[in-house]
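Hi Prof. W.,

I finally got the Lipid particle protein prediction working! I wasn't sure whether to trim anything, so I left the full sequence exactly as given:
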Amino acid sequence: MSGQGRFTQSRALGWLQRIEAFLRGRGKITHDAQSRSFVNTELEAEHLFVLVHGISGAASQMFEIGSLIAKTHDRVYVHYATSNDLIALTMDGIDIGGERLACEVLNICQRLMNIRYISFIAHSMGGLYARYCIGRLYEQNFFQYIRPINFITLATPHVGSRRPLDTVVGIINNIICRCILSTTGRQLILLDHEESPLLLQMTELDGPHMKGLSLFTVRVAYANITGDFAVKYGTSAITSSMPSPDLFVSSAHGRFPHVIMCEDVPPRVPVVVGAKEVTVSEALADNMNTEVLPQNTQEKKVTHYEDMGTTDPKQQLVVQMLRSLQTMSWRKVTVRLDSRFLSHIRIIQTLPSWRGTTHDVAQHLVENLILCP
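And this is what came out:
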């Protein structure tokens, strides 16, 4: 991976020492981030839940979900990742942040010697941190000792945040990512490398990140269909098509009014894009990218993933990343919140609103967790 080249020799040595100590099972692993965790009984915990916040975020943003897990389930240890808490620490790259998260996970597992299972729940860019972290752990045979169960993301830009360059919004978005969000921003809009940006490397089918991700019992992607200007539906739902929000005005019901669609998407046959040039229009028309809608919306209009422009050559990389991620099964959960602008944060936090709260999204997530398969 190109990101590894940026680490100094001493930092790489520190990583190897942590791995060696963990695999021996008795060495000391240190980390300068203070742990803030919620556990029923630490010595009895068998399942570690790692909750990861996004860019410029804080561990406290994940407290609502974490507290529900700890109150609902026994023998679990809920850890709020703190290794990327500072704003500056979310600007130095997905690979650097993912490396810090991997060290933090090793630190926790070294202390909790009875842990048998691990799950990740991540918001926004925290999902990319988690995916990079999983690849690093896979390279060191971590999952031979601790079984991966749930990988859950909420509003995560799995294929980046690049927008078409033929629109004003797209131009502004790309300028903000490149100039304000520093290294992380350039990685999100695929400008960190001309031919092989980091996010593309993380979707290589024979790479450690995809191999590690495939080991999880279940992969779940929660995606906002409206009101999320930071992360669009297509990249968070890992899809090239987007059902019209108007189709789901009356779809929500029961105990989870903001969860309007939940579907299990089976894996799709991998396609080698490099062997033959595939246009964006061909990708969108491909049967592999045809989304299955609820029965009452089968014949309704479906709009294409709005970020798939035709004038930006980088969008071919987006198609390739989508197809790679779609080679494994996902549970896709579509969320529609009563917010025009704050959906990105409200999907994980209850904020004051005269139109209600999003507590049901967190409850839906917790009730559908797999604990000990």
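The radius of gyration is 20 Å. Does that look reasonable to you?

Thanks,
D.
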